Amino acid sequence: MITASDDRHTWTARAIRLLEADANRSADTHLHVFPLPEEWGIDLYLKDESVHPTGSLKHRLARSLILYALVNGEVGPDTTLVEASSGSTAVSEAYFARMLGLAFVTVVPRSTSPEKIELIEFYGGTCHYVDEPLEVYAEAERVARDCGGHYLDQFTFAERATDWRGNNNIAESVFSQLEMERHPVPSWVVVGAGTGGTSATFGRYVRYRCHPTRIAVVDPEGSAFYEAWRTGDRAVTTGCRSRIEGIGRPRVEPSFVDGVIDEMISVPDAASIAAVRMLRDRTAHWAGGSTGTNLVGAFQLIARMRREGRTGSVVTLICDSGVRYAHTYYDDQWVAAQGFDLAPHRAQLDRFLATGEWTP
User: How far is CA 182 from CA 35, 106, 207, 247, 301, in A?
Assistant: First the structure.
């Protein structure tokens, strides 16, 4: 138990121990095998980040961001933590803020799913709403300034708050879990980009360990990352918001490290939604939309490997649970209201799983 009466160094040491204890007692997340025909010679693995205590990949990021702020002397016993988020990072940060006895405020777009808002508030966080996604940054800075708090700023610090050399980061975890598999070093790791922190961690880790693994980043509609990577122009912005929560941004975030990426794949939103519904039908795993984006990219790369006559393994992520999107991606009325036609994308997915071929 930590209290405000502790001196600053004692309080910080106890806070760090609490965060590290949370990591230590949480068993590592599972690495599931997605069923593909044995004769393909290709294995697809899904790293299930939905089983973290706060239900998403962002649990790792939130812990790392708060630890980073603690060791830099930015946070003390009376500091209000402030974030700009589309939801999942804020859920995890609210959890850790409550653990440390700190107030937490997050600036979120009004379009954030009600399930995420409920979780943020369940953990004691306060939501501050903006109408446009590009407004979250300046508003979070203002909120932190006005309350004398600390802006965690996931979009700047995600790539540096995680130790890319190891220390049980997600990349080290995946490679450790693959050691007994027939293809222990994956040909591809496929991830989305919200902050860019996950792709930076994987990309740096495989280079540091001298693995031949390549990194593919999938990007949804309305996001700036793919166009920036394609053109080399990091100043590109979009006027659209991504409908795949957790990934895609209207601008290129500072923590997006394009030099560690080998390929980017643009994925239609309707394809992402069709893919998570297919995942639930075939495996009973109920995941969020970003997992669907990951699967579409992974399937395309597997089809390419088959065309080239190569075998190996591919790894991607289950980023969060579909429970958070019961009123969006899994609601037929919401899907229709967005103007999505999932049928052709589902047919494409089923055709791939039957033949191993991907037709654009």
Answer: 15, 44, 22, 31, 19
d(CA 279, CA 283): 6
Distance CA 156, CA 62 (A): 13
As a whole number, mean pLDDT of residues 139-158 equals 96
Q: Residue 121 phi/psi, 5° resolution?
A: -70, -30
Secondary structure class of 104 (helix, strand, coil): strand
Q: Which helix (H) or strand (E) holds 347?
A: helix 343-355
In angstroms, the CA 288 to CA 194 distance is 14
Rounded distance between C-alpha atoms, residue 10 and residue 126, angstroms: 27
Distances (CA, A) of 18 to 23, 25, 120: 9, 11, 20
What is the reported pTM?
0.93
Over the stretch 40-54, which tens digit does the pLDDT of each residue have?
999 999 999 999 999
Which residue type does 145 have?
A: R
For CATH 3.40.50.1100, list the domain ranges present in the chain. 22-56+164-355, 58-158
Closest Cα partner for 50 from 286, 315, 297? Answer: 286
The radius of gyration of the chain's CA atoms, rounded to the nearest angstrom, is 20
Sign of CA dihedral 242, 246, 247, 252: positive
- Does the 58-158 domain belong in CATH 3.40.720.10? no
Residue 38 tokens read as 């044995």
Distance CA 24, CA 213 (A): 28
